[in-house]
Design goal:
Helices cover 57% and strands 10% of the residues. The protein is elongated, with a radius of gyration of 27 Å. The N and C termini lie far apart (87 Å). It has 25 helices and eleven strands. It folds into four domains: 131 residues, Beta Polymerase, domain 2; 84 residues, Hydrophobic Seed Protein (Orthogonal Bundle), CATH 1.10.110; 167 residues, no CATH class; 45 residues, no CATH class. By secondary structure, the chain is α+β, with helices and mostly antiparallel strands. α8 runs antiparallel to α11, α13 packs across α16 and α23 packs parallel to α25. The strands form three sheets. It has a seven-stranded mixed sheet. Strands 8-9 form a two-stranded parallel ribbon.
């Protein structure tokens, strides 16, 4: 059975076809499912149907039969989501403005997505007015019309994502139109931009995607000015970003020997989603850009030792780009702690308590900080006079990461000092000064200056007027 006939016989498509025949309306399967069938991708989970007549009736009838929930998704578009076994199935229905499917396909984004099957007909035949099948075979991503990006500027970002996802090259004319229209991207809704950006940052061959967005002018429009100026103020800085994300992908695809036994846990960790389209992997990639922005010294709020201001700036950027609270927090933790393991190499020996403190402070981002550290260290390279420290950075990061993923229990450590210790030593009652002293002690512990309770008590005594 040919791929299209196999797709046409899919039970879900046959259910839509039966409802369509009962209502006497033409319905077409369009977009990704048709494209992927021609690529021999089995087991589709996302289906897009287009129809003109009987739109509301067909959607309501199909949702009842599948016991699915109808979600208004966009103008003239409704989504139905339901579960089938362990799979989550998404079905989109779009209202055509004319009854001519050819006209509808010509208004779409790329030729490889502008193919359709008439599911209400008994035989499967491809409707391909723009040569999408040929472009798919040639690994070419081509816009459907000269006005494709003016009609929906977000399609320029989709071009970057699809080119990697489908292993296609963006056709020269399409690339030129992207560069010409890059300033239009800000017309798209913030939520749509955020979702598309973080889907790109989760996708394959991240360095190529970043290079592509930079070349066509999109990256400049997508990132806040202070971030963009910092990571691209020198070509060397941008190349450092590309190297780091490349090594990050390498570490995940070919884990070090000590991570081999936790490969599945590693995969689950980076693929977890905090909100629609925003995964841990995409946050790690975005964190690479922000970490290098901090290092550049031109980043607003970075430098001068003012870590609090820097993290406030990170949170502001995350909020402005549309990330939710959980993702904001994870991103801030990743950036705030990205030099933490480098500092740990200054310790004569790494105690269990230091590991516990690291995990407690970083929370869910702890393993991500390890992965960032490894990728950054590999990208930075090792000069002859610092090869030992560089090797030590990776050893600590790999050890911590393996411990976290293998569920080795890092016991909760009690603070080195208590409020009672402070009050007794300083001879003053309770007050804000107690919290200030405890915060100083915690920071000194993080920096490796206070490694046990005895050292902490000696330090505390030095603060006393009689010390």
């Amino acid at each position: 059975m040919c791929p299209l006939s196999h797709l046409h016989s899919h039970p879900l498509i046959q259910n839509v076809a039966r409802v369509a025949r009962e209502l006497h309306v033409p319905v077409y399967l369009v977009g990704g499912a048709v494209r992927d069938a021609l690529r021999d991708v089995d087991n589709p989970h996302d289906f897009d149907f287009a129809l003109a007549d009987g739109f509301d009736e067909l959607v309501a009838c199909f949702a009842r039969e599948q016991r699915g929930k109808i979600i208004p998704w966009d103008v003239d578009q409704k989504r139905i989501v339901f579960r089938q076994g362990n799979a989550r199935i998404t079905v989109d229905f779009s209202r055509m403005h004319t009854t001519d499917i050819i006209h509808d396909l010509k208004q779409r984004d790329f030729t490889v997505n502008a193919m359709a099957l008439a599911v209400h007909e008994n035989e499967a035949h491809l409707i391909d007015p723009l040569g999408g099948q040929g472009d798919l075979s040639a690994h070419c991503l081509r816009m459907c019309s000269q006005s494709a990006f003016e009609a929906d500027p977000l399609r320029m970002m989709r071009a970057v994502r699809f080119s990697r996802q489908l292993s296609c090259e963006i056709e020269l004319g399409t690339r030129e139109r992207m560069h010409l229209n890059s300033s239009l991207i800000t017309r798209s809704a913030r939520e749509r931009i955020k979702r598309e950006l973080f889907m790109i940052l989760h996708g394959p061959d991240l360095a190529t995607s970043l290079r592509e967005m930079h070349a066509c002018g999109l990256l400049e429009k997508l990132l806040p000015d202070d971030v963009f100026k910092s990571i691209l103020h020198k070509d060397l800085t941008f190349q450092q970003n590309l190297l780091t994300v490349g090594f990050l992908e390498d570490v995940l695809q070919q884990p070090d020997a000590c991570l081999e036994g936790v490969r599945q846990q590693l995969s689950d960790y980076v693929n977890q989603e905090f909100e629609d389209g925003v995964s841990m992997m995409s946050l790690l990639t975005f964190a690479v850009l922000l970490c290098n922005a901090c290092k550049s010294g031109n980043f607003t709020g970075a430098g001068g030792g003012d870590d609090i201001l820097s993290i406030k700036t990170i949170r502001r950027i995350a909020r402005d780009i549309g990330l939710g609270r959980k993702a904001q927090h994870i991103l801030a933790c990743l950036v705030e702690n990205h030099t933490r393991i480098l500092q740990m190499t200054q310790l004569a020996s790494l105690s269990e308590r230091a590991k516990v403190r690291f995990v407690q402070d970083c929370g869910e981002a702890a393993a991500g900080v390890c992965l960032l550290t490894i990728a950054d260290d590999l990208a930075t390279g090792s000069k002859p006079d610092c090869q030992y420290s560089s090797r030590r950075v990776r050893e600590i990061a790999f050890d911590l990461c393996a411990s976290i993923f293998s569920s080795q229990h890092l016991h909760t450590a009690a603070p080195l000092l208590t409020g009672d210790d402070v009050i007794a030593s300083l001879g003053r009652g309770a007050g804000p000064h107690v919290g200030d002293v405890l915060s100083q002690a915690a920071q000194l512990e993080r920096n490796g200056i206070l490694q046990d309770r005895k050292a902490a008590l000696i330090w505390l005594k030095s603060l006393s007027p009689n010390g």
